Amino acid sequence: MAEPLLEAELTVTYPGGRRVLDRARLEVRPAEVVGLIGQSGSGKSTIALAVLRLLDHRGARVQGILRFAGRDLLSLSEREMRAVRGREIALVLQSPHVALNPALRLEAHLAEAWRAHSSVPWRDQRGELRSLFETLELPGDDAFLRRYPGQVSVGQAQRVLIAMALLHRPRLILADEPTSALDVVTQAEVIALFGRLNRDFGVSVLFISHDLLSVAALCHRVSILDGGAIVETGGVEEIFHAARHPYTRRLLGALPKLPFRAQLASLASQLDAAGQTLYSDTDVSIPRPIGGPPQEF
Description:
Elements: E1 6-14, E2 18-28, E3 33-37, H1 44-51, E4 61-68, E5 71-72, H2 78-84, E6 89-92, H3 96-99, H4 106-115, H5 126-135, H6 142-145, H7 154-166, E7 172-176, H8 184-201, E8 204-209, H9 212-218, E9 221-226, E10 229-235, H10 236-242, H11 246-253, H12 257-273, E11 278-280, E12 285-287
Parallel strand pairs: 3-8, 3-9, 6-7, 7-8
Antiparallel strand pairs: 1-2, 1-4, 4-5, 9-10, 11-12
Helix pairs in contact: 4-7, 8-12
């Protein structure tokens, strides 16, 4: 079995003694998409911030294990971590129009992200950018790049954030609720996009969400977070059809049957258009993970 790309067992305590994560353990393997599910306030986003060592700036105490590509991230200096953030581990946030500066043109955002980790002039990178935009189904013309965030749709703004994350070809993307601000159709398109990125580029993804449907469609494995601890981890079929932990079963039992099936049908039509397939059993239809199969272990 290959070594995990990301291995974490984290305890996070905020100033005042409030413990948000309690030995929360998860792994992401090379070329794998792992879903992290939990209700609001369970600590999902805290895990993403802890992996990037961004909680240090909030005065939080992070303890435990945090290894990426064989390196102990907790032992790195801030200068060393800055070389990891954005280059090897990238973050895609949930609200693109909040994450993007409304006073800066789209190209300015991309150029700034590029210069953070490269001495190659931005003008020499624009050819690669057009190819990346084509992959992300974004216009690559100068007129689009001159637009401000408020002049593009939410779906396009989210794709720009994904483009910024991919500029340096990271090995791992932390996607923190990346579809929560999108309509159902655009959600399906972005989910399919993450699947293509995983399949075509071999990038690993930690897909953080409370949307069980999206996780079922995209991920190879799923970890369930409750009260700051990972209570169950397994393959998509195992979690959705043979969940063991009571909290996981409650989550699945709370799915409204008809709306879930209606959303699934909508997602199915979008994925079918992208050349993806679905499988079903007698209880509930769940999309087959649309990323490429994880590497053999």
